[in-house]
Amino acid sequence: MEKIKNNAFVKKIGFNRLVLIGVLILMYVAFALLEPTFLKYNRILSALNYAYFLGFLALGVTFVIATGGIDFSIGTVMFCAALIGGQLIVKNGWPVAAAMLVSVGVGMFFGILNGFMVAYMKMPSFITSMASMLLSKGLGSVFTAAQSVSWPQAAQGGWFRNLVKMRVGGMQIPTGLLCLIVVSIICTIILNQTKIGRYILCLGSNKEAVRLSGVNVKKWEFLAFAICGTLAGIAAIFFVGAYSTVQPGLGDTYNNDAIASCVMGGTSMSGGLASIGGTFIGVMIISLLQEGILAMGFQKDWQYVITGLIVIAAVYADVKSRQRRN
Question: Using CA atoms in the order 65, 236, 278, 304, what is the torsion angle rounded to 10 degrees?
Fold first, then answer.
């Protein structure tokens, strides 16, 4: 095993990432054998619909977890942003572009709120994000009078749907996947090759040591939450681009799926270690799992069972890995 891990190619890609890619391939093959419709292009597109918005949520929360914090509000913030933006279009006649900017702004607002409470008010991220989860869930319901909201279809001016899927020559192209890949590359550069990423990772490794070295830890911790919230707002646009209708009072389960994707991908819940590439693959695994369970006629509850088991295994592997390094 050590010989494999020390291989030049394996080191470059990452042993954990290669394992995740192998798991993803095996899952797809297994689902295809059990349910032949999985080989159809439309089934792949259906699985990707879930991956787009989940991917943006997971990328954002990766930055927060890297600091040693957590954000349980991202799913409900996404729904709140989608509800408010959709309501402005449907009830107030706002242009789609303006409503999209508002949705991103709503996500950014909650990111800034969480960041301020954690970084400057010294409140635990667990409590602040739970409070923001309730606040965003309630705000979305109040703004829409507890009514569902449907964003316009493509024929009604819903040009934003091209960000998710675009029809070219009678074939649907998953443009949302391209957008997610581009943003993942940008996040990788930020996390691994910029001062922002270095300080965010250092906060997760030893926050007190970073503070004593003269670094403004509040600034970088605040920024991690702001990035997370902004990406949650962007996720709202991709959610409505794929599914159209948004119902108030939902979004909680997407927090779990996004965090599970991060942990599965190699981001340590203790902070200081994060992998954007691993998060991306984790998102694909969760999305494929969700589509596979539904395709085979099982209840969605089975996805929660399997995802929970995966998270337990991933956290246990992270704990053992840290013990070995120490």
Answer: 80
User: For residue range 11-21, what is the model confidence (pLDDT) as tens digits?
Assistant: 556 667 787 88
* Residue listed under structure tokens 């942003």: 81
Measure the CA–CA gap between 197 and 224, rounded to whole angstroms: 9
DSSP for residue 166: E
The dihedral over CA atoms of 194, 197, 199, 201, expressed in degrees to the nearest 10, equals -140
What digits encode the pLDDT tens for the residues 29-67? 888 888 888 888 888 888 888 999 999 999 999 999 999
Please calculate the CA angle 51-277-58 and round it to the nearest 5 degrees.
45
Residue 166's DSSP bridge partners are 173
CA of residue 46 relative to chain centroid, distance? 18
Residue 111 CA to residue 225 CA, distance in Å, equals: 5
246 Rama class: left (phi>0) / alpha (psi -120 to 50) / beta: beta
Q: How far is CA 57 from CA 49, 238, 307, in A?
A: 14, 11, 16
Rounded Cα–Cα distance for residues 202 and 199 (Å): 5
What does the DSSP 8-state code read for residue 37?
A: G
Give pTM, 2 decimals.
Answer: 0.92
